[in-house]
Amino acid sequence: MAKLTASETHRLDRAVVAISVNPELGAPVPDTLLRDYADNIDGVRVIYYVTALRQITIVAYVEA
Hints:
Elements: H1 6-21, E1 27-28, E2 34-39, E3 44-50, E4 56-62
Antiparallel strand pairs: 1-2, 2-3, 3-4
């Protein structure tokens, strides 16, 4: 996170908020419990896992 610019942080934040509002937003990754959300407009891709308690673990990629 420390290496992200303010713009990249803002773009990633928008994706994280969208996922937190609707955890089923991303497409299921076959044969895993992971979900894949891509926002082509903001250039953000988020791979995440939703636990049984609805907590979300996230790995994100922001395109330059």
